[in-house]
Design brief:
Residues 1-20 form the signal peptide. It is built from 14 helices and 12 strands. It is α/β, with parallel strands linked by helices. The structure holds NADP nicotinamide-adenine-dinucleotide phosphate.
Length: 322
């Protein structure tokens, strides 16, 4: 009886050791050195991952040097260079894939091909891999070309690379780009132009929550593999968003439907127009209470504004990525 008890303790200790060791494996982080990248890294660290166990991938040595100075693991690689990917993946058992191309005005059609190269490099290794991917919510009938590419990346991992465990985090409207210079100065001056009717519910996602949930999924004992999870921390109408800005900045802010901007988008900016139509028509919801229960927290819009220092008028979008 005593021997059996001892054996059970040894087995438990052994399992604990295996878990502890696996938690030391590196997590490759792809596409998190751009405008929204630093918030992703903050979220991954908040989830319990150590900066030195994150291996942030970039083509740009100067960005990596900056991250190394902050204690992050890094690797110089290019998604279009298969040899560099094999090296980048060495010692990794998890990957958070935030992006495979730049978030450019003109859609970069390399997104799916770059994902295929990464998945191929993963499938050639013996180590099992869990990938968590930054995708986007949306009904099939409403999603534009940008979101369709993200669905194609989901399909690719799920159907062409079944040996890779895959979790899709479908983000809603990111809060962070509201800091960009084509929106923030006008909002601070009192006008929040958002081309949807004032009472339309908008699901909002803080980018840091993508990193946080990804980190939790990668470390989870309860599996999130082969799951699609919609991610949002708040749901507000444009009028309520404007009110939250006003409250945080301490100066008035009103929502404007932006009729001229809508016409301009329809005529000249295809992917912006697709997003406007989507936001006007989508009926997809995200269960925020469920997310809080499963992952412990998600960020409300008010918290996002406070945490990001919105009220400090000297700060810019670029400051968020430092
Ligand atoms: N849900 C929403 O509302 C919303 C809003 C905005 C963005 N997004 C999505 O969020 C993601 C990131 O947006 P962002 O604004 O942070 O993008 P970004 O500033 O353009 O950054 C792009 C990232 O992709 C990496 N990358 C591009 N090509 C690469 C290659 N060949 N090899 C390796 N890395 C490569 C870049 O790395 P290096 O240049 O350092 O190599 C960088 O880390 C995108 O998928 C975008 O669609 C969603």
């Amino acid at each position: 009886m005593k021997v059996g008890f001892l054996c059970a303790i040894i087995v438990l200790l052994h399992c604990h050791l295996i878990l502890a060791l696996s938690s030391q494996d590196a997590v490759l982080v792809v596409g998190a050195t751009g405008g929204t990248g630093k918030q992703v890294l903050n979220g991954l660290v908040q989830s319990g991952l150590k900066p030195k166990n994150l291996r942030v991938l970039s083509r740009d040595a100067s960005k990596l040097k900056f991250l190394e100075e902050q204690g992050f693991g890094t690797v110089k690689a290019d998604l279009n260079d298969c040899d560099s990917l094999a090296n980048a993946l060495n010692g990794c058992s998890g990957c958070y894939l935030h992006s495979t191309v730049g978030d450019t005005k003109e859609l970069d059609s390399n997104e799916v091909l770059a994902a295929r190269k990464l998945a191929t490099a993963m499938s050639l290794r013996e180590t099992p891999m869990h990938v968590v991917y930054n995708s986007a919510v949306g009904e099939e009938s409403l999603i534009g070309s940008r979101k369709q590419q993200k669905r194609a990346v989901e399909d690719l991992f799920e159907n062409d690379f079944p040996s890779i465990d895959f979790t899709s985090l479908r983000s809603n409207f990111f809060m962070d780009p509201l800091w960009k210079k084509y929106t923030r100065p006008a909002i601070l001056a009192g006008k929040f132009t958002f081309c949807v009717p004032p009472d339309t519910p908008i699901h909002l996602t803080a980018v840091a929550d993508m990193g946080f949930l990804a980190g939790k999924c990668l470390q989870s004992i309860k599996t999130t593999k082969n799951r699609t999870i919609n991610v949002s921390g708040d749901v507000l109408t444009p009028v309520e968003i404007a009110a939250a800005f006003a409250k945080c900045q301490g100066t008035p802010c009103q929502h404007s439907k932006g009729t001229t901007m809508a016409i301009m988008s329809r005529l000249f900016f295809k992917s912006l127009w697709e997003e406007i139509v989507f936001l006007r028509k989508t009926r997809i919801t995200t269960d925020i209470d469920d997310l809080k229960q499963e992952f412990g927290k998600v960020t409300s819009f008010e918290e996002f504004l406070d945490n990001s220092g919105w009220a400090d008028t000297s700060r810019t979008y670029e400051d968020l990525s430092r």
